[in-house]
Amino acid sequence: MAEYLVLIYQDESANTDPAVQEQTMAGHIRFGEQNGAALRGGNALQPSGTATSIRSDGSGGFTITDGAFAETKEALGGYYVVEAADLDEAIAVAKEIPAPVGGVEVRPIRPM
Fold first, then answer.
1. How far apart (Å, rounded) are the C-alpha atoms in residues 109 and 112?
2. In the chain, where are the structural domains located?
């Protein structure tokens, strides 16, 4: 079995309606109940405005800035680590993740 990181992207500005938030959270609870055997972890993230970016300055130092690396309409909002036999199985699990104001990305985890 392989592990896959499923990244959940969302339009942070569209996620303000409490009814949508409640419905999405209920969907994640159902997702966890239905896919618990495949899940190895996961969490929601604080908004992208709370991020701190660190980049090498090329001379041995670092530049530290407030905010995410890139400003985009959709920001990384959370993730799941999924164990699956192959990419097709991981995609099938990822399709069940509620993402009403965004989408998901599936990436294989490289064993180290």
1. 9
2. 2-108
User: Around 92, how many Cα atoms within 13 Å sit in the side-chain half-sphere?
Assistant: 10
CB 2 within 8 A of CB 108: yes
| Token pair belonging to 39 | 């899940």
On whether the 2-108 domain is CATH 3.30.70.1060, my answer is: yes
pTM, two decimals, is 0.84
Query: Do 5 and 84 meet the contact criterion of CB atoms below 8 Å apart?
Result: no
Nearest to 98 by CA among 4, 49, 29, 5: 29
Per-residue model confidence as pLDDT tens digits over 14-63: 766 888 889 989 999 999 999 999 999 999 999 888 888 888 989 999 98
In what helix (H) or strand (E) does residue 33 lie, and over which residues does it extend?
A: helix 18-35
